[in-house]
Design goal:
With 206 residues, this protein is α+β, with helices and mostly antiparallel strands. It contains 8 helices and 4 strands. The protein has a 4-stranded mixed β-sheet with strand order 2-1-3-4, covered by helices on one side. A hairpin with a 5-residue loop joins strand 3 and strand 4. Helix 4 packs parallel to helix 6 and helix 6 packs across helix 7. It binds glutathione (GSH). Glutathione binds next to loops.
Length: 206
């Protein structure tokens, strides 16, 4: 398997899952700043121009964070990345979809790429402020859902890998103070050996 990723991007959530699984895999860095995701070498693999992109052992390509995370969990049951119970599975997918589709795509994309939301440069601050509002609302929702729990659905699951990457963006990039349960979850995640290995490999470790 080969993970195509950019250090510090949302792909870090998939990278940490590969470390949790512990089977050999390759990585290939994609330089998003230089626009490598729009060049034929990358678009011939993933025409969506996005990381994470997973090239599987049979050569087939899987994209979209939730799909990759779900497939990794289902094909590596020994790693216990998804509970067996259908209700808990649905809760994990529910949380992961909210993180990716709302907190990241609606919130952070406004902060990182305001020009995608308005052609008018004068709108930039307002677009970013709206993005931060969406992210903060998401954090409040996740914080409530973590109350009295170590991880989102009880034991560690793929949903925690998703929550971790947006917590990382909030804490390390925006220098925000995370709400208490998210801050404790972020700390708990940082203490996992698999997360530490991923952080080292991506050059993100403090
Ligand atoms: N919906 C996609 C989002 C992936 C995504 O937005 N990736 C960002 C990095 S965090 C990216 O590759 N951006 C490059 C670009 O849009 O040019 C997923 O769930 O995997």
């Amino acid at each position: 398997m080969k993970l195509m990723f950019a250090p510090g991007s949302c792909a870090l959530g998939i990278h940490l899952l590969l470390e949790e699984i512990g089977k050999p895999y390759e990585t290939q860095r994609v330089n998003l700043q230089e626009g490598a995701q729009y060049k034929p070498e990358f678009t011939s693999v993933n025409p969506k121009s996005k990381v994470p992109t997973l090239v599987r052992d049979d050569g087939s390509v899987l994209t979209e964070f939730p799909a990759i995370a779900y497939w990794l969990a289902r094909t590596n049951p020994q790693a216990k990345l998804l509970p067996d119970d259908p209700d808990a599975q649905a809760r994990a997918l529910e949380a992961m979809d909210y993180v990716v589709a709302t907190m990241h795509m609606q919130g952070f994309t406004r902060i990182f790429r305001p020009a995608n939301f308005s052609p008018n440069a004068a709108d930039e601050d307002a677009v970013k402020a709206r993005g931060k509002e969406i992210f903060e609302k998401g954090l409040a929702v996740m914080d409530k859902s973590l109350a009295g729990k170590e991880y989102l659905v009880g034991p560690f699951s793929i949903a925690d890998a998703a929550l971790f990457y947006v917590e990382f963006w909030g804490a390390a990039r925006l220098k925000m103070e995370l709400p208490a349960n998210c801050a404790a979850h972020y700390k708990r995640m940082l203490a996992r050996p698999a997360v530490q290995r991923m952080m080292q490999q991506e050059g993100l470790a403090a």
